[in-house]
Amino acid sequence: MQRSLTRQLCILLMVSAAVVSSWRICDVTMAPFNAVGDGRTLDTQSIRSALKNCDEVVLPFSKKFLTGPLNLTSNQRLSVQGTLLASQRKEDYPLISPVLGYGWGDDENCFPPGAAPHKIVVGSLRYAPVVGAFHAKNISVVGSGTINGQGDIWWNNCTICHYPPHNDSAYCLTANRPKLLEFQFVTGLNVHGDGATNPLTLENSPFWTLTPSYSQNIYVHDLRILAPMNRIGNTDGCNLDSCRNAIIENLYIENSDDGVSMKSGLDGFGMNLAIPTENVLVQNITCGAGGRGGFAIGSEMSGGIRNITFRDSVLLGERGLHLKSSVGRGGYIHDILYENIDMSVALGIYFKIGSDGIPIEPGNQFTPLVSNLRFFNISGGGGCSFDCQNANQSTCFNVTFGGHHPTHCKPPSPSPALHEQKYTCKDTAAWPVCLPLAAPVNNDPNYPNWGPTRGTFLSLSDCQRVCS
Fold this sequence. Notes:
The chain is mainly β.
């Protein structure tokens, strides 16, 4: 099955690679763009001009380019061989609309204490990413250089804002920090280095590091993702947020939050949008001992997570395998395989549905439907913690262990098989999606992102044959 998945994804990921005679490659230091590349002069306009006029934009070796946000468009390639330095001036980052499945900003660590009782901060927007692409196809960010978000000023200000003894509101934000690389509604996305010995480095992101959302046919490989351990954190390595058909492989991650995480929106906004992250293979990942790292499901997973494989990886940071949700998230977590993973963390496998903020949606006490979690050959000194009492139907269905697993690690009891599911089809903002009728998704017609569905199907495969 995994070979079939890999083969299918590889076919999907062969995006338009043909170089035609009109393909224009531009070095930003050459005329007419004339970027300085000294790490002090702001080169934003030079690089934006190159992106406007060229198919492939090259930031050459031995140069450092200080820049504000950059936006790529369809059939475009950014080749980073030198260093891209993100501006640290807040005024260089325009405010943009919130992510669809979140409703508002959710950067609660950078708002005054108590300002975000819902986790979502009502009325807040977000700053544009350092590098982004929106509603595009065939986007590539590649090279053996470095994209440095210079996030320390954001982290420090948020710490002064949010934590005693300072709690100084002058340092607080009213919008989400910028992500380093963010892609929304992209079909055909490649982010990678120039091979295993020449990775692309993504470091010091102000917020999440690499985040595709509502995107499909994704290939991420040969990256170094780095950020120091920090009280504010949130420098997640690679987050797939309501995406499908992806391979994530050959990454080294040392950061202050999750290493690789599957997400799909937050609470009522994400539940009603109902775009899951699905059909993802994550393999050959190393999370270093100097960070938190680890593999996560959630905690923002309200649109559903299904058919995900994590395998052949080494997790040496503080975190292992975390499946985290909250009352009010809803959604579902189905068909997750962890295979051949070596961990040396105190708490290796952790599943919990807690209480993370007050849901804005009236009456939202929904929790995820959890089924078919498989752990095979999980080694290391960490243990297990499964707390299924708050799961949908108060049960985690069909949790199994095979091969090696941590000492004193066993599945929750009871863990029966989930009864046969029925599905319906929703035409979402991204693509048609098959929704399990037993899971709390798309369930409130009086709340944003709800939409009509069509048909009732006796299996996921029956639904997928029609829902496309």
